[in-house]
Write a structure and sequence with these properties.
The active site is at residue 68. A divalent metal cation binds at residues 27, 75. Its cofactor is Mg(2+). By secondary structure, this protein is mainly α. The chain contains four helices and no strands. Helix 1 (9-26) crosses helix 2 (28-46). The radius of gyration is 19 Å and the shape is extended. The protein binds adenosine-5'-triphosphate.
Length: 126
Amino acid sequence: MKKHKKDPLYKSFGYAFQGIYTCISKERNMKIHCCVSLLVVIAGIIFQLSVTEWCICLTLFGLVMALELVNTSIEAVVDLVTEERKPLAKIAKDTAAGAVLIAAIMAAIIGCVIFVPKVMQFLTGL
Ligand SMILES: Nc1ncnc2c1ncn2[C@@H]1O[C@H](COP(=O)(O)OP(=O)(O)OP(=O)(O)O)[C@@H](O)[C@H]1O
């Protein structure tokens, strides 16, 4: 295998940020994840989440967005390999999309577990 000099660490970070930027700018779902995360942060500040609740929310933001990046990567590789309709291409794309969906559904349920009692408490205190 041909050996080549590795890029410096700062360049590797740059490539990773390019990937994140590309995903945000091209993928509608990633834009939705970013908007939802921003709204949760605003709600978290308003309802004064505990340290543990912040850690749970931040972990879920990271999980969902990281899976969306992997999904985008798999879509790109499949499209690179074939433009024909193939069952394996469908499995690759659909299972990757399913991974994001499972994480997003779980994140939404956990978000309800954290925020619904706080909202109820706020409403009953009015
Ligand atoms: N080469 C292919 N062979 C078979 N099925 C494919 C192929 N490419 C896409 N599909 C299927 O067509 C549907 C739409 O795929 P597409 O690549 O447009 O993704 P998408 O669901 O619109 O995702 P996104 O909105 O993130 O781009 C999916 O069910 C996918 O599995």
